[in-house]
Amino acid sequence: QGAAPSRMFSYRREGGGAPGRAGTARFLARHNTWGFVATRAARGKIQGMPYGNCLLLSDGPINNSTGIPFFYVTPKDNTVTDLLKNPMASLTLPEADGNFCRKNVIDPEDPRCARLTLMGQMVTVPPEEAEFAKQAMFSRHPVVRKWPRSYEWFFMKMNIEHIWLQSW
């Protein structure tokens, strides 16, 4: 296990997690395995338009959540092409996989199902954090190890600047 990169926090989720808004946000960051990343298109006829895509993510190895989303991406993905030209993005993490909505048979888009939106800059993971990013992604998504190497995969993370939690 690698240590968490600098400027990161770790927390342990036990039972229902920390109460309140911060606990809900940490729960969503920890337990979502994918999220919706929105960018501003940087190509062709849709340049400047909003564009989004679902991406796999991890906020750390299973036993070391950090709250910082890491991604394993390819420049062949239009979302990544956009991010390399303009790193500002938002990441929405729904409670779609959580027990509350499923147990209560509530549609994931129902306002009672929490949603966390993180906004900030998506950056390439620096070399000193690459091993941590690899452990983060591969521990939660083992199948990505088998993705075609010819796609030039690399790691990105979001430097969070703003947080919006919808938890009614």
How would you portray this structure in words?
With 168 residues, the chain is α+β, with helices and mostly antiparallel strands. It has one domain: Roll (Pnp Oxidase, Chain A). The longest helix has 12 residues, at 20-31. The chain has helices spanning 20-31, 78-85, 99-103, 130-140, and strands spanning 34-40, 50-56, 70-73, 88-94, 115-124, 154-166. It is built from four helices and six strands. Helix content is 21%, strand content 29%.
- Straight-line distance between termini: 37 Å
User: How are helices and strands ordered from N to C?
Assistant: HEEEHEHEHE
What's the overall geometry? globular
Number of helices: 4
- Report the biggest beta sheet as strand number plus sense, adding barrel if it closes: 6 strands, antiparallel
Strand order of the largest sheet: 2-1-4-5-6-3
CATH class: Mainly Beta
User: Please, what is the average pLDDT?
Assistant: 86
CATH topology: Pnp Oxidase, Chain A
CATH superfamily: Electron Transport, Fmn-binding Protein, Chain A
